[in-house]
Design a protein that fits this description.
The protein has about 120 residues and is mainly alpha-helical. The chain is about 65% helix and about 0% strand. It contains five helices and no strands. Helix 1 (about 5-25) crosses helix 4 and helix 3 (about 65-70) crosses helix 4 (about 75-95).
Length: about 120
Amino acid sequence: MTVNEFTALVPPFESAFLDDMADWTLHGRHRQARRYTTDKNGPLPTPEDRLLFILVYLKQHPTQLLHGRLFGLRQSQATPWMHVFLPVLRNPLRTLRDAPSRSVEAWHACLILLC
């Protein structure tokens, strides 16, 4: 992924993230009283940090313990963030038409373009 592609993905990713966090807590419960606010002193304070966190996980597939350590989190803190970010990332990728395809026809078309 280039810097320009990363930069283009940040706003739709952050928008999808904030939309999700408006209704759900980090632990998957329906949000009832308090609204979500980003902890500016936390390990993932910026939208770029949050996007990089999930993209590194998808690209490298480190253990959750190692991945958490890379971003200053314990494994027990990294796991919920992964479960939040994975579905959140899907919508912006679909909007930008960069989501992975599940159809054999699309995969075959990609192979033809690569050859």
